[in-house]
Design goal:
Elements: H1 3-14, H2 16-24, H3 38-50, H4 55-70, H5 77-89, E1 107-112, H6 119-132, E2 138-141, H7 150-161, E3 164-166, H8 174-188, E4 192-195, H9 204-221, E5 228-234, H10 238-251, E6 256-260, H11 270-277, E7 282-286, E8 294-296, H12 299-307
Parallel strand pairs: 1-4, 1-5, 2-3, 2-4, 5-6, 6-7
Antiparallel strand pairs: 7-8
Helix pairs in contact: 1-12, 3-4, 4-5, 5-12, 6-7, 8-9
The structure holds guanosine-5'-triphosphate and magnesium ion (MG).
């Protein structure tokens, strides 16, 4: 089996819960031989909403199927599924999904998100990817000085991955950690600095101010930095996560999303909601808890993985 086919299988496995809702859950849904009728259309619309694709998308897709069916261009469920795939892939903006690296000097990636979203784990995955697949030297900055054990959690990852870390004590000023990390990266010729941040402070406003402060310090130390501000969203929170994202995008200029925990949810359709409601590209998806469980996001591959499960070829 080719590397591509193997990793596609892994992605299919990770998206199984969403795929189950969308197609194989009711084994009678997209099976050959099932004819399109109003009951079928209602059933798929309901499933798309359950998978957190958003009402608008669900109506748009079902509307497209209904139109073609009425015109006699399609008749059965398998043909309908092709329309679903086509519609899900339509209107993706041309977006930059690769990490933007500095043209010279260290690239700084700041990572933000609400508590428990998956920031620290996603940082470990990203660091591992950059180190092992792109051959970059990476430095982690333990900027979550608020939560007890947060520094320790990132330290454990750094040891496990063999990646350097800059840290201060719990309770220290995270902007000072970011400052030191930038200086260390310049002095040591490090390629990429990844800055972890707190997910929660005493108040939301306080957190946003702190993120802005970290951002400002980074911008002063390294020209053009931060090159990326990645917001980690927890896919299991579905549409609520999208709503939360807006407070972060208002506070710090988020350049990309990392959608974590897609493996643990049936709400994978949320990528469609993200496309519609946030004009920020999903750059990476998290599909498990190990450092290898990260993928660059690609809409075509995502839709293929969702709709090829168990489908007769
Ligand atoms: N299944 C699965 N679990 C994940 C994924 N990403 C993160 N997790 C788990 O989610 C939990 C929270 O992840 P963290 O990385 O600690 O989240 P965080 O945003 O840093 O949390 P705080 O530091 O408390 O704000 C951990 O148990 C992770 O193992 C993923 O892609 N899939
Ligand atoms: Mg964390």
């Amino acid at each position: 089996m080719s590397f591509f086919a193997k990793t596609l299988d892994r992605l299919k496995g990770a998206l199984k819960k969403t795929a189950d809702v969308l197609n194989t859950d009711v084994r009678t849904l997209f099976v050959p031989g099932r004819q399109i009728d109003e009951a079928f259309l209602n059933e798929i619309e309901e499933k798309f909403i359950r998978a957190d694709m958003g009402v608008k998308n669900a109506e748009m897709i079902v509307g497209a199927i209904r139109d073609r069916w009425r015109l006699g261009r399609i008749r059965n469920a398998v043909e309908a599924r092709e329309v679903v795939k086509e519609m899900m892939l339509r209107d993706w903006p041309v977006e930059e999904r690769e990490i933007r690296f500095a043209s010279s000097g260290p690239t700084v990636i700041m990572v933000a998100g609400v508590n428990g979203a998956g920031k620290t784990t996603s940082i470990a995955k990203l660091a591992n990817l950059l180190k092992n697949r792109s051959g970059k030297s990476v430095l982690l900055a333990a900027g979550d000085t608020f939560r007890a054990a947060a520094v320790e959690q990132l330290t454990i990852w750094s040891q496990r991955l063999g990646i350097e870390i800059v840290k201060h004590k719990q309770g220290a000023d995270p902007a000072a950690v970011a400052f030191d990390a930038c200086e260390a990266a310049k002095a040591r010729g490090i390629d990429v600095v990844i800055v972890d941040t707190a997910g929660r402070l005493h108040t939301q406003a306080h957190l946003m101010r702190e993120l802005q402060k970290i951002r400002d310090v980074i911008a002063k130390r390294i020209e053009g930095a931060p090159h990326e501000v990645l917001l980690v969203l927890d896919a299991t929170t579905g549409q609520n996560g999208v709503r939360q994202a807006k407070s972060f995008t208002d506070a710090v200029q988020v350049t990309g999303l990392m959608l974590a925990k897609l493996d643990g949810t049936a709400k994978g359709g949320v990528v469609m909601t993200i496309k519609d409601e946030l004009s920020i590209p999903v750059k990476f998806i998290g599909i498990g808890e190990t450092p290898d469980d990260i993928e660059s996001f690609d809409p075509k591959r995502f839709v293929d993985a969702l709709f090829q499960d168990d489908s007769p070829k």
